[in-house]
Amino acid sequence: MASSAFDCSQSSPSTKTVRVTIKGRVQGVFYRDWTVESASQLGLNGWVRNRRDGSVEALFSGKPDLVDEMEQRCRRGPPHAMVTALQIVFV
């Protein structure tokens, strides 16, 4: 499994952390790199990795409104992805 981390180190008491699993056509379409870029733009901390079952798993941590924005971005994904399901677990 390939994984990538991103760290913008701005932890505070009002930090929201979620683990998401994205299913659909999400491997081989630069979904992981797109996730790192998007999360870094938003100033989030976390990691992302491909899973053996063909899904992508990520952990996002940061300001609640920015984590919410990343969740919405993950529903769309990069141009060649086709997201069929997004599971969100609060950590």
From TrEMBL:
The EC number(s) this enzyme carries: 3.6.1.7
Family: Belongs to the acylphosphatase family.
InterPro entries: Acylphosphatase (IPR020456), Acylphosphatase-like_dom (IPR001792), Acylphosphatase-like_dom_sf (IPR036046), Acylphosphatase_CS (IPR017968)
GO molecular function, one term: acylphosphatase activity
SUPFAM superfamilies given in the database record: Acylphosphatase/BLUF domain-like (SSF54975)
Reaction it catalyzes: an acyl phosphate + H2O = a carboxylate + phosphate + H(+)
Protein name, as recorded: acylphosphatase
One Pfam family, short name: Acylphosphatase
Active-site feature positions: R32, N50
Acylphosphatase-like domain segment(s): 17-91
Keywords: Hydrolase
Lineage of source species: Eukaryota, Viridiplantae, Streptophyta, Embryophyta, Tracheophyta
